[in-house]
Amino acid sequence: MLPREELLKGVENREVAARAIDLAEQAIKNWEVVVTDFLSPPEQIEIQQLFARLTEVQLVSWGGYPTAERQRLAIARSELPLDSTQVPIVALGIAGNFLFDPANHRDFLGAILGTGIVRDKTGDLIILGEQGAQAIVIPEIAEFLTQHLTQVRSVPVKVQPISLEELKARPPKKKEMTTVEASLRLDAIASAGFGMSRSKMADLISGGEARVNWKEVSSPSHQLKSGDLIAISGKGRLEIGEIAITKKERYRIQMIRLV
User: Fold this and answer.
1) Which candidate, 82, 84, 88, places its Cα nearest to that of 27?
2) Which of 108, 164, 193, 235 has the least C-beta neighbours within 10 A?
3) Per residue, what are the HEC states of 103-162?
4) End-of-domain residue from the set 134, 166, 198
5) Is 54 helix (H, G, I), strand (E, B) or coil?
């Protein structure tokens, strides 16, 4: 048996980590590959750090394409071969004419969850504008969604399986930039990085739309440091690079925006 309580000390996503430990014990006992549901980036990081202490098991993550945000983890004994092909994933095309009633990520996710599916069973959503979207899910719910997901907003949709090669996820574009700020506040740096007013950025942060290092931050005054990753819903990500102090005792901050 694995040292469960020791492993769970200080773990933030305790319930998710506990399920992963259960799966690891199953993998060790039965000499089989077991797979988690889809995990968010902070859950993935925490479980990978937790399992890095163990020599008995190994992990492989996969979400359908290399830069997928939500991924499943396959767990197996360290003696067994393990690669991403052992992570079961299905891609679905959600086709409809969204020219006159555009739908965003939240609309598609809401329609999927409205069928009774829980979030853990779904991976990334790739929005295709007027044509609809693509969804990555666990295989067990694919047929259910082809039958029960029939509308997104006011638009009738048709759902059918597609190959992973048909996914239209594009690698993020990188834009390097520099800003000079009086402080290292989240709202100040994020407003410069994402090109919007500080007051609007503060509203987004207070409204729960911001994450720093994949953890939700609702305080506009949150202090940033070099190496932090900022994500704003629907706006992309911002990596904080080197921070230097100018002669006027302001902060010169190098950033990379991923869109």
Assistant:
1) 82
2) 164
3) CCHHHHHHHHHCCCCCHHHEEEEEECHHHEEEEEECHHHHHHHHHHCCEECCEECEEEEE
4) 166
5) coil
pTM of the model: 0.78
Residues 100 and 29 in one domain: no
Q: C-alpha angle 163/142/153, rounded to 5°?
A: 100
Say how far apart CA 166 and CA 82 lie, in whole Å: 25
Q: In this structure, what CATH number is given to the domain that contains residue 217?
A: 3.10.290.10
pLDDT of the chain, 259 residues: tens digit per residue: 787 777 888 778 888 989 998 999 999 999 999 999 999 888 998 898 888 888 889 999 999 998 898 999 999 999 999 999 999 999 999 999 999 999 988 899 999 999 999 999 999 999 998 999 999 999 999 999 999 999 999 999 999 999 999 999 887 788 999 999 999 999 999 999 999 999 999 999 999 889 998 888 999 999 999 999 999 887 889 999 999 999 999 999 999 998 7
Query: What domain range includes position 28?
Result: 4-86
